[in-house]
What we know:
Distance between the termini: 22 Å
Number of strands: 8
Largest sheet: 3 strands, antiparallel
Strand order of the largest sheet: 2-4-3
Number of helices: 8
Oligomer: single chain
Radius of gyration: 17 Å
Amino acid sequence: xTPYRKITSNIAGKLNLLETYLFxxxxxxxxxxxxxxxxxxxNLANFYGIKKTDQIREWLHKFESLGLIQIDKTDIYGQYxxxxxxxxxxxxxxxxxxxxxxxxxxxxxxxKGFLILLKCKCLNGTNTTLYSQNKLAEELGxxxxxxxxxxxxxxxxGYVKRDRKxxxxxxxxxxxxxxxSQLAIIKNIYPEIITDEDLERGYIV
Length: 205
């Protein structure tokens, strides 16, 4: 299994922190090449870390309404009658690559969601954003206080550093920097993930 998943940067400004983390969890529960998932909502809830499947269902339908996933239902006939089985196809347009390692990091789901959104707003092929905290809040649709809180926490825990004009993600083992040389390495190791067409069209950001 590839150690990375594609996460569309289209989630930025559409999802809050907990929803973003669920989108990442759904990606981890998806085929690493096609990003199609057949996971059950109960299993996804357990993987995410809550018991409320109703909440998971609500968020999945929100993802669908925003065009971030496509939900397909299939009728299954079993011993106890007919039931629906859902599959989920995740959007991969303009994606970033994020390691599976983030799932096991000893930090809150909210901070994980924030770091994913921060990666989505970095310059193409980098772990650096030029947005100020106020502009970042606007771009992500988050309160300024929320952005300030999680930037401070991420800096304290060693995930980001700041200078006068930039914010940098530090964990390159989690947030992949897709420089030309790294893309060549990844394409060598995982040719099914990155195609020449992806590189040509600049789908990796």
